[in-house]
Amino acid sequence: MSTMGADVATGLPTASPADARESTRDFLDRLVHPITTEAADTVILVVSELVTNALRHGGAPTRWT
Q: Fewer beta carbons within 10 Å, N or C terminal of the chain?
């Protein structure tokens, strides 16, 4: 299975699910080898859920760096 990693600097002062979705869309739009719309929607959903859970259960404010 192929994997890929990325460091994303958003320039946003705080994290929210909406910020995460926007940053993810921007990242996916810049991929050299684009993925299908269905795959992109799935990635955006997973990122949104992960950020929502981190904010809900992590307790402290989050910064994107």
A: N
Q: How far apart are CA 10 and CA 31, in angstroms?
A: 16
| pTM score of the predicted model | 0.69
- Angle 47-12-20 from CA coordinates, rounded to 5°: 10
Stated as kind and residue range, the H or E segment containing 60 is: none
DSSP string covering 39-51, please?
HHHHHHHHHHHHH
Place of tokens 């890929």: 4
Q: How far apart are CA 1 and CA 28, in angstroms?
A: 19
